[in-house]
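yo, Dihydroxyacetone kinase subunit DhaL is done. seq:
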Amino acid sequence: MCDVWVPVVESLRQSSEQNLSVPVALEAASSIAESAAQSTITMQARKGRASYLGERSIGHQDPGATSVMFMMQMLALAAKE
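structure:
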């Protein structure tokens, strides 16, 4: 999950410094969240239930990262409306 939250928070901080509108900032954060979540596919889980799988967790997107990605996508969508 932190693999997504850290870059999302950094993106939102930068958007705030640039005085971007909320919809624009959330759209950028959503895009960052998607790429960060996808980057977990090549990682071995070290926390949570997936950690019990060891190397077998490699090749699967982290569920926590995916949930954060979906949340950011929905926030960005809601901000557009």
